Amino acid sequence: DIFIYSMNNGRWGIGAHQEKAQGFDTETAYVFNDTPHEGLMPHHLMGGWMHSRPAWTPDEGIKCREVDVSVVLERADEKRRHKVPRQPPKIMQQAAAKQEVVNDAA
Q: Are 14 and 32 in contact (CB under 8 A)?
């Protein structure tokens, strides 16, 4: 999972499980916007975003935009419907095979 959050320094950051584990009470991020947000949402900021690969580098290709939550939920639901079912765990396969043997014996 990836999260966008307000860092301790008043800037927007994008991070993952390490930052979540800290309750987002941090100044660390993989990507951040160098402009103090002063309460503005990330898609309203004019400053550029920076990434940490290999060092802090401005990246004009990073864009933050507002999305309609219902569209995001629809897409997630669509992905779930088209997901290929995974194989049942081996223990369940073995239990089903034993059940077939019992049914055949009856």
A: yes
